[in-house]
What we know:
The chain is of the alpha+beta class. The chain has three helices and three strands. Helix 1 runs antiparallel to helix 2 (about 65-80).
Amino acid sequence: xxxxxxxxxxxxxxxxxxxVEATVALPLVALIVFGAIDSSSAISSKQTLxxxxxxxxRRAIRxxxxxxxxxxxxxxxxxxxxxxxxxxxxxxxxPATVAPGTQIAVALSVSSSDVAMMPWSLLGDGTIRxxxxxxxx
Length: 137
């Protein structure tokens, strides 16, 4: 066997090893990348719900604010962020009728599948929730 033939065989073996390594590594890298995208989407949605609940609570604690006003404000806020299926719970149901000093809670929830960036989610089909409690002025 000549030296040139031995070098060619060693090169072929190395190329085969690189193919096997890529076959093992690429799915793992793809899983990590798509998991990071999915997680960041969930975190972004959670932050949007936090902000919407906070702004809704600020609107609800004002004097003479109605539940319809809070609902409209929160829905507009969420629609601007691309969330259209969130559920709002306002406690007490009508903030205009409560006395000053009473706690008012604004709770929001949305299915994680409704806000996912991809048609499937690595995080499962859970619910993203946020709640803010403030005291009526």
